[in-house]
Amino acid sequence: MILEPERYAEQFKAAGADVLTVHIEACPHLHRNVQQIKSLGMKAGVAVNPHTPISQLEDILHDIDLVCLMSVNPGFGGQAFIPHTLHKVKQLRQLIDSRGLQVDIEIDGGVGDKNAADLIAAGATVLVAGNSVFRAPDPKAAISRLKAL
Question: What CATH number labels 5-147?
């Protein structure tokens, strides 16, 4: 998470990014940030920390391509998955579907073999798996297991 992401959007685009996700908690002018990202030809995502309610997304959801639900507190890898995230995925899926939107739901933090299937069943479409892959005895096998879900 970075503060003032608008200062870096053009640099991310120049570096080859085609999707840029900003944290709702770091953007006092979120709509402006999303408009900037879109104007640069990128897809726009909004990340939500574990303590932030899904209701905070209601006024921006129709303008974005992705919601990243943080399932750990931002900062470092290897944290335990926060179980309440599963409820938030279901809430968000219902909100997206009720509005007829096409918005991906990404889960970031503590994702692995033990919870990936439940997250997908709840409505997640993108899973970020760091430690469950890179600390696995066989990272390729870990990726294959996750892709098979």
Answer: 3.20.20.70
